[in-house]
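To: structure desk
From: M.T.
Subject: fold request, one chain
Message: Could you run this one when you get a chance? Sequence is below, nothing fancy, just the single chain.
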Amino acid sequence: SFRMHIQTESALERIFNLLKDAPDIPSLNLCTAFILYILSSDILTSQMNSDIIHLMLDLINKSSSININDQEYKKMKERILILNNKSLPDDIFYEERFNTCDIILETFVNISHNNLNESSKDEIRILGGFDQIINAVYSIIQDLSNNDIECYSLSSLSLRYKKLCRFINMLEEFSNENSEQSSTLHLDINRMYIAQYNQYSLFHSLSKFLDLSLIWLQQYLSINESSAIGTDIKNLNMRHLFRDGCKTIMSILVIFTNDC
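Reply: Done. Structure tokens follow.
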């Protein structure tokens, strides 16, 4: 009922109007990003308007100059991580990448499932949202490729891998038609922008990610069958994860290679 009240009374818009200065204050920047993420998880408040989309991208842009050693910022980050670990059902965030940009990108993941209208997609693209997603995909893949798979626990590897797949699926969502009558022009602009960004960097990232996925899938397939039952179940789950990841990569590659 509280969420219904927020929606019907336009309280959400009023709240974020009061937070227009949030991007400039380190601790408030992070806190506001997390509030947006929580709200985006609820279908009643996931239909973000233009002002909130602008706020989200402003939070990301201003966060690049944040001093991560700021005491208030560190306290806020610690509080949010504790809240996240206690309250959220799924493992979404990990500390090494826990910042405003990653929180907002996970917010985009949530809102991308809700048939965003074309004007919202355009705003996200024009304000640099697509750039942030593609750069994040590149960054996480670089981290994974620079380290041996054995450097990560199964849970750590799974967390990073699932995040990558979510971001790739999100790019596919932004490239697809929604339930409205989508204009071919809008569709082509978004797809070509994503494909051609930074000299087709997404293709290079996806190619590297596919190679890694196939290598890891083969490694887990070749594990000795004499493994303990508990370990074998974990390995089976990882095989499914890598197999599904390969499908995710191939799906978006089919879309973009057809257009290019």
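Reply (cont.): The first helix runs from residue 2 to 8. Let me know if you need anything else for the meeting.
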